[in-house]
Amino acid sequence: MPALSLLYDRIRTEEKVLINSAEKKGVLLKPIDAKEIHLTITDFSKERDLFGDVALERCVSHFRGLHLTAALESKGITVVNSYSVSSICGNKMLTSIVLAKNGIPTPKTVVAFTKEEAMRAAEEMGFPSVIKPVFGSWGRLIAPLKDRETAQAILEHREEMGNPLYQIYYIQEMVKRPPRDIRTVVVGEEIVASIYRYSAPEDWRTNIARGGRAEVCKLRDEDAEIILRAAKAVGGGVLGVDAMEREGGIVIHEVNSTVEFKGAMSVSEVDIPGRIIEYALNLIKR
Amino acid sequence: MKLKCPECDGDIEVKEVIEGEIISCNDCGAELEVSKKKDGSIELKVAETEGEDWGE
What is the ipTM of this complex? Predict the structure, then answer.
């Protein structure tokens, strides 16, 4: 029986280094392709022989990973991250609510459910603002609402898009920030690495997946505290907390539950995959 | 090991790959996933394309 399993649908750098790290530590970690399994969900027999006690859910498809997590949790398997954490982090609106409720500084955000009302919300917010899909990642379809005309065009496009989640209009104030944000990898209750992500020359978004560049960030104590509080607020685990620097301090705009740490790994000396494996092992011992 | 691209039938030299890894075909550029057959041998499948919910 494996000690840990790693559920994937695509092996990125992160999955590769996690597998290698476990091997180096002599930990029996079984990589399992989520595309090649099926689970009976009406039978709660434990499937620990296959998955071990703790599963690292690392699917690149959020909904695949989320549903797989629910199925495994129903069988008594501990999943990193949990269904609750993954469902909050996988939805920008839920994340904003949780952050705000816990008193964590976060950009002002409004939600509307029709194009017309979204326009009113954008006008109230003032231009420019930012519209983001509530789901998805890598900065996909995030757009600046520069003025009334742009907003109208983007909202009309959104209305035509097939997935009903695109008609949840999540509009956020445009934070005046330097051309970078801060990505912090949190494992359990500890910060293991923090980087600045600079946007690529042809993009305004800072995502490494969009060609952003990483640089080590030495967090101020007060910022580290806010980041740890944000991680705790969503339920904790292995997380990527994203912050923007504005006058007066940082604001948290996103918490990622299948954190990509390739950028952080390229500039940080910390053994990030090693720390994740150890965290998962400690969950078995509990 | 030499394998065939399932998209264009081009030859692909495969070295030190792990299951689930994505490689691309030098001839046609297709993204291919390394997969293991039941008998343990390696095959290449056309990889899934980016979905709306892909990412972190």
Answer: 0.89
